[in-house]
Amino acid sequence: MEVVFAMLVGLFFAAAIYLMLSKFSIRIMLGIAILGNAVNLLLFTAGRVTREVPPIIPSGADTLNADAANPLPQALILTAIVISFSFLAFLLVLTYRAYQDLKTDNTGEMRVAEPKKRPLPPLGY
Amino acid sequence: MAAPTSIAVDFSAALVSVPVQAGHWLVILPVALCIGLGAILMMFRDRTAMHGWIAIPGLVLLVLIDAALLYRVANEGPVTMVMGRWLPPFGIAFSVDLLGAVMALAAAVVVLAASLYALGEITVSGRRYGFFPFLMLLLAGVSGAFLTGDVFNLYVWFEVLLISSFGLLILGSEREQIDGALKYAVLNLIATTLFLVSVGYVYAIFGTLNMADIAMKARAPGNEAPLMTLAGLFLLAFGMKAAAFPVNFWLPASYHTPRITVSALFAGLLTKVGIYALIRVLVMLLPVERAGLGPVTTVIAIATMLTGVLGALGESDIRRLFGYVVISGIGTMLAGVAIGSASGLSGAIFYALHSMVLMTALYLLAGQAARLGGSFSLATLGGLYRQSGWFAGLSLVLFFAACGLPPFSGFWPKVVLVKAALDAGAWWIAAAILLTGFLTTIVFGRVFLLAYWRPRSAQDAAVPQPIAWQAGLPLVALAALVIGFGLFPERLLHLTQLAAGGLEDPSAYLHSVFAGAGGAQ
Q1: For the residues B84-96, what does the mean pLDDT come to?
Q2: Nearest 10 degrees: Cα torsion B351, B354, B355, B357
Q3: Contacts A113 to B, Cβ<8 Å
Q4: pLDDT at B14 over 60
Q5: The pTM is what?
Q6: CA distance B4 to chain A (A)
Q7: A11-36 pLDDT, tens per residue?
């Protein structure tokens, strides 16, 4: 089961990196969305994938069953999902605003902060 | 308590059963205070005139708390507090050692200075936008990152400071800011995601996220896990955060776009959090792998130093120029990590403290230079010396400190680093540090020559504005710190050596986590 998950995570990472290498900011955002999910799956796999028992202590016993699933990665993923979701929302708004203000979504043409033709620094006194 | 009532359970094996010592609350108080102040400021979002009166006393209190924490840690060794009473490694731990405490104190001082400056600079619209709440939450993230003892929480605090920094960065919504913010946001988010990938692998390998637990398990013999790959991932993620050479071009693209106070805060705090995390993870958690990555780190450090200073030489906008100076300073700190000996690390920590104070002061200085001279560009600035003699003298102090000339604060960490490099037989690191210092002197000599000594051009019609006390006071205070570090370095040198020693041999840290958690023993 871990092997399948590992391959899926690899596939997600590959797709995310391919999209993030694009010039267009909306594709980069899609890449970041996939990257976040790739990491979530990675965290999930890191906790060892089992298809056994939910991690609840049965009544009458005082420990978990030995084959219970690991609850910690799920707590970690929940945090990571919340964070990556909020960041993605912010970034999407920022991208849209950048598209409105800069009239382009091509990062090669976003040169407001770093203009291409800057005057030379003063060369003499 | 979900345990069945029929079985007698010994809770003391799993839970902290003793109340937390009063003094241990100091560990969590800096973060709690910042978040609380942020919430209070949000409640008063309509009464922007009150923001400064809430924020500045709060920050003074924070500085006092951080100083008390540092005093306690220096006298009693590392302190740990566990949340939710679960014993480590299961409970979320806040573990403070000397390194964390001293960095947190420096961060609080820097933010206090910058918020004084903000009183004069951030207008009503900036306050309505939420400048002071964002500032507090940024500081909560930074303090949390310095004080936490859990790798996953380090990631969470990184995200807290990152989202607050996004808010501060686009304060004003100018085209230039949106352009800079997009690059900053995307690249920093990718860096933190890489950090999360590394955290996932840490959990997969060690089955724990508590730093002390990881440090013990990574030192245990017979470990077959691919720790080198893990250390490389951490180096890439934190290197991107700290603006190390091949992954640092987001910094000069974005640091000059926001308000000066925000630039000053970013330059003083954010890259240093990356360096702190790098030192914490590579030196304390994975020392063997750090030694293995030594050659790579050396190359990165030297390239960061030299590209930074060469970039500064070619710039005419002083804010961008200072951004490149930040980068070359990061290279100097990385050189300490690359050397890896206790004295190299203590040099790196000392340099980080110096750089936090100095870079904040330099950006505030740039803001005042632009007020006096009407421009940020070296092509048009001129005659600042004629306009304000004491301002020029203050600038010269900060410039000398940035170049590493005695008797100011930049001198001693460079001496320590050069000596550590020569002791380790790495003359090329020492040579790179000295060459960078020489080139930095040229950079600042050029700034002083053009902006201060050159007479003001006649057609420049901008009316110079006098320096207000809100700007003068933090500048003088930070410059006094720079001079104080330079004239009386023994205390700080001793402190940083102790901090570096605590990283090399974290037995006191481990003991505080596993024996004294929450004051149980």
Answers
A1: 82
A2: 160
A3: 176-177, 179-180, 183, 253-254, 256-257
A4: yes
A5: 0.92
A6: 6
A7: 999 999 999 999 999 999 999 999 99
